[in-house]
Amino acid sequence: MPIKLKRAYDKASSGDGYRVLVDRLWPRGVSKSDARLDDWLKTIAPSDELRKWYHDDRSRWAEFRRRYLAELKAHREQLRPLAERAGKQRVTLVYALNDAERNNAAVLKQYLKMLGAG
In the chain, what are the domain boundaries? Predict the structure, then answer.
């Protein structure tokens, strides 16, 4: 099944399947009950340093993507179960950034596909 991406501020739906927050920080103004998360993988989110660096200048997307992929390699074994789950059921990566294409969840989705996810 394809991995979905969804902002934390968008309403959760039954079609989301297994919902995973992939940010290091909890999204402002979102209650835990509204988020309807199955997991929160804050340790696989971009490092604080990388997150702040990208937040300061969003034109750094290509370099952010490269650096975050390098960070994800250190979490390969931790991410294998999520990649396997995505091969069996719908997985939605939940993120807070207001850019639907240039966010850490999009990079993580690409990495999970390299690990064999759907």
Answer: 4-114
